Amino acid sequence: MDIKLLRSFATVARLEHVGQAAEKLHISSSPLSRQIQQLESELGVTLFHREKKRLRLTEAGQKFLDEVTPFLQHHERLKLYGQSLTQADVRRLDIGYVEAAIHSRLLPEAIARLNAQNSIDIHLHAMRSRQQCELLEERALDVALLYTPPENNRLLLQKQVLTEPILLAMPKAHAIAVPTPDDLQGQRWIADHAHLNPAARAKLLAVCQQAGFQPNITLEVSGPLAALACVEAGLGFTFIQQSLAGRVPETVSLVLLPWLPLEIALYAVWRKDDSRPLIQAFLQALFAAN
Question: What are phi and psi of 270, to 5 degrees?
C-alpha cells in the first residue's frame, strides 16, 4: 500500500474537504479524489460519505484512520531517525522524566557527569510514567525516568535508580510534635491531581488506610512545590520527598513518620535493542549519580 495514499487519506479525513486537502498536499483536487477512490478500491471498503461540500468518514473510515494516524507518525519518526544515521556522530539524547528525578538531583548530576566527558545535545521531556513507556516503544524517547516501571514488557529494560523517604509537611502553626494516625485523620490534605499518577495516588491511600487513617484530600495541585506553597498558606498537610527538605519554607514543619512506610522509588527504563554507545554512557552516568 502506497504511503502517499495513506497520507492523502489522513489529510482528507482531518479536513473533510477535498479542495482544502489538495491545497494542503500541493496537488489538484482531481488527482486527490482519484487517490481516495484507489485506496477504497484496494481496501474494498467505503471510507467516506460523499456530501455536496464535504466528506465525512464512515464508521469503517474512522476505524481505519485510528490505525493510519500512529502509523504515519511512526513513519515520520523513522524517516528522521534514518536521516540522523547519515551524520558522522549522532549526539542527541531524548530523556523523559518525572519531577522527582529533578528534585532529587539524580538527573541533573547524571547530565553533568555525561557532559563532562562528551558534548551531547540533550532534550528533557517532563511527562507521566505511562506516556514515557509508550514513547520509548515508539522510539520517541531514548531513556525514561519514572515512578511505575512497565510489567512484563519484552521490549524494555529497567533498573531502580533511587529510593528516598517521604516526609509529612505541616504548617508550623498547626504542627503536631509526634503525629499519630488519629491526629492525621481529621486534617485537610493537599495532593497531586489524581490523573497525574493514579497508581501513586492509589498506593498512598492504601498505605495510609492500613496505618489507620484516611487522608481527606481537599485540594489538588500539580507537583510538590505547589503543594508546599499551599501548606505554607495553612491550607492543609501534604507528603513530600526527603530531597525537597532544603526547599521547605520556614513556616512549614517536616517530620518523618516511622509508622508510615512511604517512599519514592525511581526507575530508569530503556529499549532492549538500543545498543548505541550514547545510551550506555548516559546510563553509566545515571547509575554513578545514585
Answer: -150, 165
